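Regression test attached.
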Amino acid sequence: MNNQTQNKVIKDVMHVGEMASGAQLTVPVYKFTAQGATDAPSVYIQANMHGAEVQGNAVIYQLLELIGNIELFADVTLVPYANPVGCNHKNGEYTLGRFDPITGVNWNRMYHNNPKLVDVAVEQYIEESDREIEQAFKQSLLDDINEQLDHNIFGLTTGQRIAYQLQKLAHQADLVLDLHTGPISSKHLYCPEYAKESAKHFNIEHTLLIPNEFDGALDESTFCPWWSLSEAFKAKGRCINFNKESFTVELGSQEQIDLDIALTDAKSILCYLQYKGVVKPNGQQDFVPDEMIRYACYLKDYKAFYSPMGGMVDYLAEFGKPLKAGEPLARILRMDNYGDGDALHYISLDHEVLPILHFASASVNQGTELYKVFSEFFTL
Amino acid sequence: MNNQTQNKVIKDVMHVGEMASGAQLTVPVYKFTAQGATDAPSVYIQANMHGAEVQGNAVIYQLLELIGNIELFADVTLVPYANPVGCNHKNGEYTLGRFDPITGVNWNRMYHNNPKLVDVAVEQYIEESDREIEQAFKQSLLDDINEQLDHNIFGLTTGQRIAYQLQKLAHQADLVLDLHTGPISSKHLYCPEYAKESAKHFNIEHTLLIPNEFDGALDESTFCPWWSLSEAFKAKGRCINFNKESFTVELGSQEQIDLDIALTDAKSILCYLQYKGVVKPNGQQDFVPDEMIRYACYLKDYKAFYSPMGGMVDYLAEFGKPLKAGEPLARILRMDNYGDGDALHYISLDHEVLPILHFASASVNQGTELYKVFSEFFTL
Amino acid sequence: MNNQTQNKVIKDVMHVGEMASGAQLTVPVYKFTAQGATDAPSVYIQANMHGAEVQGNAVIYQLLELIGNIELFADVTLVPYANPVGCNHKNGEYTLGRFDPITGVNWNRMYHNNPKLVDVAVEQYIEESDREIEQAFKQSLLDDINEQLDHNIFGLTTGQRIAYQLQKLAHQADLVLDLHTGPISSKHLYCPEYAKESAKHFNIEHTLLIPNEFDGALDESTFCPWWSLSEAFKAKGRCINFNKESFTVELGSQEQIDLDIALTDAKSILCYLQYKGVVKPNGQQDFVPDEMIRYACYLKDYKAFYSPMGGMVDYLAEFGKPLKAGEPLARILRMDNYGDGDALHYISLDHEVLPILHFASASVNQGTELYKVFSEFFTL
Amino acid sequence: MNNQTQNKVIKDVMHVGEMASGAQLTVPVYKFTAQGATDAPSVYIQANMHGAEVQGNAVIYQLLELIGNIELFADVTLVPYANPVGCNHKNGEYTLGRFDPITGVNWNRMYHNNPKLVDVAVEQYIEESDREIEQAFKQSLLDDINEQLDHNIFGLTTGQRIAYQLQKLAHQADLVLDLHTGPISSKHLYCPEYAKESAKHFNIEHTLLIPNEFDGALDESTFCPWWSLSEAFKAKGRCINFNKESFTVELGSQEQIDLDIALTDAKSILCYLQYKGVVKPNGQQDFVPDEMIRYACYLKDYKAFYSPMGGMVDYLAEFGKPLKAGEPLARILRMDNYGDGDALHYISLDHEVLPILHFASASVNQGTELYKVFSEFFTL
């Protein structure tokens, strides 16, 4: 190890709310500072916005261990335990952390977007340099979030208060990674359509290409404004590449911590960061993505398949392997029908799909989301 | 009692889903048929879409008892226990029935709307009579729902399957009443802006006037298409009054059954139905709405006030009485601060409001919806 | 106000556990110290062991305000928010704080009892003075709790860790009050049979007389050892009155904070404390219990009545008023039976009872605890 | 396959309760009748008393398929979906079915035991034959359950009503198997100490030997009365072997259905039933238990290890393999401590244990049950 490239991490504790008892809700924030001024894009990585999706914390642990000893050309901020309510919300043995237990709103649908900022920016900064436009627009995003946080007489929901403070950190970076997991799931990546090339630099076999539509998630809240700004300038005849990218990285299944797999996934992220010029291994081998077939799918073709019946499920389809029309996704057991009906039902689709994830529990109601599949797909 | 006007109710049981064990989810459906053919608008009334909002069932009980003995000029369909999942979903002592416990989606945000049907209708039926347009469009709404229910290879969510089947019944009627309650709440009415006159015929002091925007609820799913159709014909220079009205009737607080109050509220509904020509008392006194000051508020001015802090809440503001700027909505106890901070906090707003409902529990996190208020209001 | 008698409260923060995120679970502890040495019994009061039972916090608030200005002859320790897990455990709108959400174990059934300590004490201290016996036994109770907390290689449950630390504080006092509430409930008092006289000094109309049987609750964990010790010495021919009393004070309904009612209940507690010589009003009127009929019932005659059917409940019986045989406790609505069965069922008992509390929700399954009643009762 | 030995199953539907909506709670009951009169012991097998423990249903499916085609010398009753409340109780994605969601009481702690029946039987039947004693005592167990179900003015809890009806079926059999699973778990068997020999006839590597103490579970409720009766007669100098055995069979992890593994486990149960003379393969190979090391442990030595800290858990110890003192059970990640504390903690014990199961979630509070282990063990 080369001492010159040992990076120091600074820890901060961000206060994001308080519970009924007055207990403070806090989030740890870790920051590495670049060695000297460079043009490399700065980075923001968070994990565990959904309570049960814990593996991202282990990936951040491994990133903290790794980044300490490599060359770093831009600031990197890492936030594990991003949602202190979801993280601690048990009901029964499992963590019930996909939505606010009081309101039912998905914790990852509460970020902020203000399309008016784009209109204002195009009008106001059309004469400025690319650099000035970028800085002014970034400032307007931050000012807007601060306005929401501090000047609202009717207040914010619990989830908005958490989300907006995270978003404030994210808006200060150029590259944003939000670490999630599926229920029981393959690894997959949500990637803006324009950043398709970058998807090849992660060790992730499945990529969802998402359009410029804000639906409340962190990735969208950070890339959509910039995409829209580019589009608005393009409409005025000016092309600017702001080099902003945001991804939701789905690390596999929820309710699992595996520090060894986390090391692999941390290295996958470093492949991408090396590609973007943020890091360089210190005397070790480069972080190079694995050779693999990378399947991609447009978000509109990413389909949830809802169970046509209630029952107990023996999940059969393997993730990440094309499943032919008529091949079973699952077989559903209905013991109440034994003897006077069909106790075993095989469930399949009428065209080839690529199964990506399935429901976390072995029993479903009619209408429970059984599988999510790429219903149309291609290789990157 | 006059035997000639005794109406018979027909009971049906609608199958709306099945649970993991195979248990069938069913909803009872009660139908009265009009005495002879008339022009009076037909009626659909449902209750208990949200599990804890049970009082509407008691109102339907009283309506069944009352309608049996009055003159009836149109078909009336009544559906208690509209949501058999929410109705039975306990967690702890209370009923956790505002959203699907698996997905967090609000049960009353899953109805269907297809704006394309309006475009098709205007194009196709511009030459037809009002009556023919109405019948054709009603049929297209029903066909569209059937299409969703039966011809979708990826299936429907549990909540959609329930909602769509209820919506099928609702689309067959001209007047739709969805009986809900608030958490701890005054009585109030969600009323389309164009139906403001009708609001004066309920015994309900507070009316929310809602615009022509579909947000997933039953009332919107049934009046928005017709409103849009009227607007579309108006744009073509043709004015048609389809006489379709839908309301969400908020009966007071959840987790309460009171059969005596239910009788009062059933009579309030009969006031409205008599006004619309659906019923006539049989030798008794007319159903006439009470004299009262009726406050109204546009939906955009109906504000949720989120708690600025966590704590234990002593709710102070009375419902339905204007609360002056600076007067306390609530005082919040924070025993963790006693001795070295403020243990008691008074919460107020900087302008006059009309409190309508407050949170159901005595403890809140920072950001929990504390009160909902008319922030601007006027009398009807 | 007389400055000489102004008591200062000391605040401490007790660490009782930690959550998955590492968030510390803490409990605020307030202590008043007696003015000079006296023989008056010391006092321990806690509140909110069950999450939804919040009103005790408001009573402690009022006690803190009142005790500051009266004469105090013994140490008083007050602990609001005793259970930081239960206090913050929401699921849906309500607080789900009666049992550990992971294990289902009632938070007030996890205190510690070690019957062997009595045998040891009788054997070891039979020759000692009453005072020495008391001190030695108190020390053995504390040592035993410390042993449980610190020297157990397999560890403690979350709830035991909280309960044992509270119990450590309680064992240091002579009089213990655990402030609870029922679901929807009248005020009532759990009182050891031997302390019946003291029950007359609270402003509480209903008293449950409980035997010397440990069932896991705080009151039992603190009085049972002393009662058993007295009995054991009595069996040896020696009568000792240790003057230890513990009560569970049920303040009414859960999910309610009312600071005005809390003031009344704080004064009721001061009546009892004045009767025991702990406090004296400072130039004000004495704290004197109200005249009232006080009904009592032995614990064995305190009956839960389980609903004979599922349905929606209109609770009819008033609390604290004898209900004659055959008079309805409640009427249960069953809309699924309307038309082809009985939609309304009146529920009654075959002998006179005194209703004390009922279930918190308006809907019940078959077998849900509908009411709790004194099935045999008498006046104190 | 030999048609002569094809057994027909009769299906029945048992009504065990009703929900708030009036929905009936039912349980399917399958019965095979013996081919001709024999002395072979009759059998009762149920599954899924805990909602998430679904694999037993798949085992019953395979047993139904297998038993249809073998020789059968005694009646066999099979009950899948034994608990229709737990089976359907979702909260979040998982099934929350270990305890009544309203009361927190474990569904498998609500069976009935009445020790007085033994005293009565010994007194009344001391002069009778073994056969007469057995029949009279069995009848007294059934009468007692019926008495509880039907003649209790204060009623039964929801869980008791379900449990008692299942117990009524179980009391009619000689051999009782209750199919459960752990959270994430190895296969293991709860076996009465006296039936140790039988444990060798299941393909299960770990056996818990349990004493004659009733703690509310089905196995105990069915073998304890007979064990006590034997003991009571032995005290009178008379030895009777009633040949009653009850087991709780832990099939592995919850929230999993695997029909292939279920077939293996069904055959394991048939090994035991062949050993007891209940079945004989029809022209196929015998059901013979596998050779394996079978570890056993007394219930008093079956220890829960509670997490000494909150955090995210990487479970390390393998099930069913002795873990040496000091070897890690798990490592616990605490990202809030990174940089200014220890982020990674290895958890071990000071003596050798045999890990059997661990918690289902990857995050724990301080005091959550992390592992259950045989702390002392031996081979059978």
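Expected vs. actual: identical. Residues 3-292 of chain B form a domain with the Aminopeptidase fold (CATH 3.40.630.10).
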